[in-house]
Write a structure and sequence with these properties.
By secondary structure, this protein is α+β, with helices and mostly antiparallel strands. The protein has three domains: 6-95 and 296-311, Rossmann fold, CATH 3.40.50; 103-119 and 195-281, ATP-grasp fold, B domain (D-amino Acid Aminotransferase, Chain A, domain 1, 2-Layer Sandwich), CATH 3.30.470.20; 124-189, Dna Ligase, domain 1. Helix content is 30%, strand content 23%. The protein has eight helices and 15 strands. The protein has helices at 16-27, 74-89, 98-105, 107-116, 130-142, 242-255, 283-286, 293-311, and strands at residues 6-10, 31-35, 41-42, 51-52, 63-66, 94-95, 124-127, 147-150, 161-163, 185-189, 202-209, 212-220, 234-237, 259-267, 270-277. A five-stranded antiparallel sheet has the order 13-12-11-14-15. Helix 1 packs across helix 8 and helix 4 (107-116) packs across helix 6. The two termini are 23 Å apart. The mean pLDDT is 87. It comes from Caballeronia sordidicola. Residues 111-302 form the ATP-grasp domain. One of its GO terms (cellular component) is cytoplasm.
Length: 322
């Protein structure tokens, strides 16, 4: 049923992930081509769509898998996301679509949506006011809590700073300059758990595909209290316990993602969601599981996302996602 389909893998670089995806698409009889969003353009002289996707001539791909979006200026990133929005408006299934990616990339919106949908997550504050952020820092310190200052946009554990009272003399350092974080303070209560006080600490990464938690791992150790794989943490297989799986699925659903890498940390009352990655890498997770992640992602795109479009043809004025 899928023979003859053509799919664009949106990525600014080719390598392990894209080769795995291409192999999985080939196994389903689908031609997959890597495309850099920076090479795509809106061109209203082109009929009928006004979009140019390299390698697809005057047509559009049957579906799009978003593997990576390169950084750039605000205008460049806006245009690249705009291309994904435009593809969706043309009825092309985009996995994950631009709206969901925008929600997951913006940590403040992620925290807002998790909280709105009742998904357990640490207390979080996001504001442009340094004075407000300083008051939060003081109030949290008075309550015996430390806080983590994070870049609003960021990944791989980069740029995180743990703040709070000095455990030797109780002094509280002032809030660092917000210049490096774009004059925005995104603060999250640091989770002091029983597990954290043992060596080494860890967090979980759960991969959600469709509406199902598919695989999990522990990221153990790393750079001090930061347990990202990119910061030197070791990947260990972890059982997909029902409560952990349920929270991860709820987190992905809250952001409207087709697939997601959900980062969770153990707390005194259970797991808490720290972040939700809408363009999730899975090389570390694949190293500790026999589950073929690329094949599962491709199957979900073709059998659920794409077939839903085939079974419900787009009508003029319809929302392509419903």
């Amino acid at each position: 049923m899928t023979t003859g389909l053509r799919v664009a893998i949106m990525s600014d670089e080719t390598g392990w992930h894209t080769s795995r995806l291409k192999k999985a698409f080939r196994a389903r009889g689908v031609e997959a081509r890597c495309v850099d969003l920076a090479d795509c353009r809106i061109d209203t002289t082109l009929r009928p769509f006004g979009l140019a996707i390299p390698g697809f001539g005057e047509t559009l791909p049957d579906a799009v898998f978003v593997r990576g979006i390169a950084g750039g200026t605000f205008e460049q990133v806006t245009l690249r996301l705009g291309i994904l929005h435009a593809l969706r408006e043309c009825g092309v299934p985009v996995y994950n679509d631009a709206r969901a990616i925008e929600r997951s990339v913006d940590k403040s919106m992620t925290s807002f949506l998790l909280n709105l949908h009742g998904v357990p997550t640490p207390a979080t504050w996001a504001s442009e006011s340094a004075a407000f952020a300083q008051r939060v820092l003081m109030r949290e310190a008075a309550g015996g809590h430390r806080t983590v200052l994070k870049p609003l946009f960021g990944s791989q554990g980069k740029g995180l700073r743990r703040l709070g009272a000095n455990r030797r003399d109780g002094s509280l350092a002032p809030l660092p300059s917000l210049r490096a974080s774009g004059q925005v303070a995104y603060l999250q209560r640091y989770v002091e758990s029983a597990v954290e006080n043992r060596q080494p600490g860890f967090d979980w990464r759960v991969l959600v595909i469709g509406d199902r938690a598919s695989a999990a791992m522990k990221r153990v150790g790393g750079k001090g209290w930061i347990h990202n794989f990119a910061q030197g943490a070791a990947c260990e297989a972890a059982p997909l316990e029902p409560k952990l799986a349920d929270i991860a699925v709820r987190a992905s659903r809250a952001l409207g993602l087709d697939y997601a890498g959900v980062d969770l940390i153990p707390g005194d009352a259970g797991a808490l969601v720290l972040e939700v990655n809408g363009v999730a890498a899975w090389r570390g997770l694949q190293s500790v599981t026999q589950f073929d992640i690329a094949a599962a992602l491709v199957d979900d795109l073709l059998d659920r996302k794409l077939m839903a479009r085939v079974l419900t043809p787009l009508k003029t004025g319809d929302d392509p996602n419903h």
